Amino acid sequence: GAGRAPGAPPAAPSADAAKLEPQRSLMKQVVEVCARAQQTAFAHVTLSGHFVTEATKPEFGQYQNNAALSLFGRLKGTPSAPSSPRAVALALADAMRAAADELCAGLIDKLEVAGAGFINIWIARTWIEARVLDAAIVGMRPPAVVACRALVDFSSPNVAKEMHVGHLRSTIIGDTICRVLEFTGHETMRVNHVGDWGTQFGMLIAHMRREHPDFLSAPPPISDLQQFYKAAKVRFDEDASFKAEAHKNVVALQAGDPDCHKAWTLICEASREEFSKVYRRLGIELDEVGESFYNPFIPAVVSTLERYGQVVTEGGAKVIFPPQSKHAIPLIVVKSDGGFNYDSTDLAAVWYRLCELKAEWVIYVVDAGQGSHFDLVFDAAANAGWTAEGTRLQHVQFGLVCGEDGKRFRTRSGEVVRLVDLLDEAKARMLATFKERQAAAQSGGAVVSDLAAAGAASADGDEGEGGSFAFGAPHMADEEMERAAEALGYAAVKYMDLKSNRTSNYIFNYERMLATNGNTAVYLLYAHARLCSIIDKSGADMAALKAARTPIVLEHPAEQAVGLAVAQFAEKVEDVLRELQPHVLCEYLYDTCVKLNVFVRECRVINVPETPSRLMLCAAGIATMRKCFDLLGMAWLERI
Q1: What is the dihedral of CA 375, 376, 378, 382, to 10 degrees?
Q2: Over the chain, what is the mean pLDDT?
Q3: What is the pTM of this model?
Q4: Which terminus of the chain has a lower count of CB atoms within 10 Å, N or C?
Q5: Nearest to 458, CA basis, from 405, 531, 511
Q6: What is the structure's pLDDT at 444?
Q7: Residue 154 DSSP class
């Protein structure tokens, strides 16, 4: 869990593999058909990658094979070369029909060569209906991938300092990456590389002795770590004798002095408790393996690298210039005073992860400013022979959380924003919205959601009394309102971070984050609650409908749009896994929600001949949304 003792080795990887059998994604099956067709029709030509994309408009089908233009270029000038890209496309389309029959019968409904040589692909409606029915009955299956042993290093706050908004991105992005890895069957180790070692502890131990001289027999409760750190820093900067004592403590701590170690332990435990409170609120699990854990391994790692001739002395320090590195600066593995540093620890950590834990994919979720550092660490590891063929060392970098001025997000007084304060504010604002709407409803005012006001009222008029969904309904008890505000507030914080391309900075704004329309968590969770409301109002026995494998028939264009979105879930997870970009999943979730809202607006679900099929489609939509919420670490509600 989030609070393992320092120095303890990482827990065994959690083989939290998917509970459902994986499936080949729709995109993968289309790509396989196109690849086989190309091998058959043009066996002597090899193209790197694939040329299959999603169609840009429904009238062009669902997918498009654009390989003909590249193939024509490769074939030009050869004996019996086709006369045009269109001729290549016609031959390719014929081969695709045969390949589809052989590889996945029933997948493709129609192929059409358009323009200069694009092949438009229509997926059979019956195939989509079968996949959507499977989602409605058993839930979302992961894509079939080659699983490996993965380790994700994320969050990594510093001991004796409170978690602030700067830790938000690493913590949330890292958790989502872990969830996607676990869902797809990877053995995943979640590692919190906390900053629990370094020269600052000499200062903190000295402050502990001054403020709590009896700390050995009566451990003090350190309730405000931030204040403790600030007070120690003031003394360090202003008192020469205190500074000297702090330096002595660093040496004593590193030498294993029991009193210093006890003070260090007390400070670490106080920090761990505060970190755990934040992780519990965010629903995040990780194992603490701090910098101090790797200290015993550093001398042996350095001496091994010296034996390999990879360490040189420069200015009295021992450094490494990885031969394949693009950077002119080295890694400093031993400082000129003989001490170790950040570089030493990270080299020992990557050795331990690769050689002791046998991780095959190590992911560091750390801000973009550390890019050159990790380039050097990865190059040094590869040069030392610690990586095997197929080993992946990956720096998942991200941009800053900024205020409206485009600079780092801070309080009005210029302080960093504490993460607990940010979460409290999100919850408080959501709770105020609930209470305001409830008060309006109880006094006879209209409680019309922004969705309904925007013309998204359901064809069934089933969002609540008067055809408007009750957002913060009068019948919601205080305790339920608290839980709902917490779920929506925390989800809003996560989603605002995750929906942006992680490499970009983003502007943090409470109003936009908590808006009930647009691409926000509140909109998505509202859409989910609305579908639950429709099913609830129908009075249908959904368990019986699922047990009977009630067919889903996608006749209406709005039904077909939802069906295709549900059927594409597995390939979107593949996209996230390939790039480690959570915003891809957010875009898919939002797009699916928009299509579901169009569906319930244009297609009556209750008391029509299509009711059983449409209820099952609602169930598939709910299953899709819930799995996306789960992968993004967002709690969902059945009513809002």
Answers
A1: 130
A2: 90
A3: 0.91
A4: N
A5: 531
A6: 66
A7: -
The Cα–Cα gap between 149 and 154 comes to 16
The CA distance from 526 to 136, in Å, is 20
Contacts of 408 (CB under 8 A, 6+ apart): 166, 400, 401, 402, 416
Question: Which residues face 363 on adjacent strands?
Answer: 152, 394
DSSP state of 160: T
268 pLDDT above the threshold of 80 = yes
Do 527 and 625 form a contact (C-beta atoms < 8 A)?
A: yes
| Helix (H) or strand (E) segment spanning residue 312 | strand 312-314
Give 281's Cβ-side CA count (13 Å radius). Answer: 24
DSSP states along 74-85: HHTTSTT--SSH
The one-letter code for the residue type at 537 is K
Give the whole-number percent of the chain exceeding pLDDT 70: 92
The residue that leads in pLDDT, 227 or 262, is 262
Q: Which residue has the tokens 């008060």?
A: 439
In order of 27, 354, 363, 568, 580, the CA distances from 388 in angstroms are: 30, 9, 16, 34, 22
CA distances from 122 to 119, 378, 385, 484, 565 (A): 10, 44, 49, 42, 14
Among 13-17, 271-275, 310-314, 531-535, name the one with the lowest average pLDDT: 13-17
DSSP for 381-397 reads HHHTT---TT-EEEEE-
Question: Cα–Cα distance between 640 and 638 in angstroms, integer?
Answer: 7
> Is the model's pLDDT at 19 over the cut of 90?
no
Per-residue pLDDT, 445: 58
CB 8 within 8 A of CB 25: no
CA 466, CA 151: separation in Å to the nearest integer?
Answer: 52
The predicted structure's pLDDT at residue 8: 41
Nearest-Å Rg of the Cα atoms of the chain is 29
**Residue of higher predicted confidence among 440 and 602:** 602
Residue of higher predicted confidence among 633 and 116: 633
